[in-house]
Amino acid sequence: MGILSLLFGQRSRPQEPIDRVLELGIFLDRLSEHTKHLGPGQSTAVGYKISRFLELGAGLARRCGGLSPFDNKTDVIECAAMYMCIQQGALTFLTLQYGPNATKVASAREDFAKIVTYTSATVFDDSVKDPSERGLEIARIGSEITQACQRKNVPLLQKIFDSWDALFNDLTDANGKRLAETYKEAIEWAKKSRGLA
Predict the structure, then answer these.
(1) How far is CA 146 from its chain centroid?
(2) What are phi and psi of 72, to 5 degrees?
């Protein structure tokens, strides 16, 4: 036992493997690079930067898909499908941040809820502290669609996850179009799952 262990006791948690530390460093560096022109400063919290990137992706998915920007007249199912995409995007980035077991880490689950709430409020022009009835409806339907998708269409969730990952790793028009195509597929699946198609 080393002198530091005698003085300060055993480590409270195991040390991260060096590969994981390097992956996290690359993730944080890339996230800062992507968001530096979106408003947050370099010292801004990681969750806020993730949210800003998700906002960028949501806008890209609409524009690259030939759809108008979100407004209060946008079909609720289209918004709910984007809510599902935002949830998967948050999961994608938290997996990059916390590792493959992100869903088992309490702080990652807390970050997930905050990121999804803040991002969806921003994307759908709603309030975080006092959401509108429409905002609550989008979140409710979006969550129901996600749960149905988890039971019946896991490949779509994986496709959304992979589209966010591709956009993050290579911010190009092609990957923006890939996310847009996946979002359109999510809209169609949402309509079918709600008996609207």
Answers:
(1) 13
(2) -75, 0
User: Which of 61, 35, 36, 37 lies closest to 50, judged by CA?
Assistant: 35
The candidate with the shortest Cα–Cα distance to 163, out of 180, 150, 184, 141, is 180
Token couple for 174? 């092609």
- Round to whole Å and give the CA distance between 44 and 5: 34
Mean pLDDT confidence for 50-77: 91
What is d(CA 124, CA 145) in angstroms, rounded to the nearest whole number?
A: 17
Residue 120 corresponds to which tokens in the numbers above? 């969806």
Q: How many residues does the chain have?
A: 197
Reading the block at residue 110, the tokens are 């807390």
Give mean pLDDT, residues 11-19: 53
Residues 6+ apart with CB under 8 A from 117: 128
Q: Which of 90, 96, 190, 103 lies closest to 147 in space, CA to CA?
A: 190
Residue from 109, 118, 100 nearest 53 by CA = 118
pLDDT in tens, 147-176: 999 999 999 999 999 999 898 888 888 989
Given a contact cutoff of 8 angstroms between Cβ atoms, the answer to whether 47 and 114 are in contact is yes
| DSSP-derived 3-state class of residue 195 | coil
